[in-house]
Amino acid sequence: MKTSLFLLVVTVTSIQIKAQNVNPVIEIRSYNLRPGSRQAFNQLFEKDALPILGKCGIEVVLYGASQHDNDSYFLIRAFNSIDERQKAEDAFYGSIEWKQGPREAILTLIENFTTIVLPLSSIKKIPSKINNMITYVSIQDDSAILSAINKKFINNFLKQDVKSHNKIIHKDFVCIESNGNIVPRDLYLKNWATDFDSSGYTSFSYQDEAIRIFGNIALVRAKTVYTKLVNNKSITGYTIYTDTYLKEVGEWKCVQVQITPVK
Question: Rounded to whole angstroms, how far apart are CA atoms 154 and 241?
Answer without folding.
Answer: 11
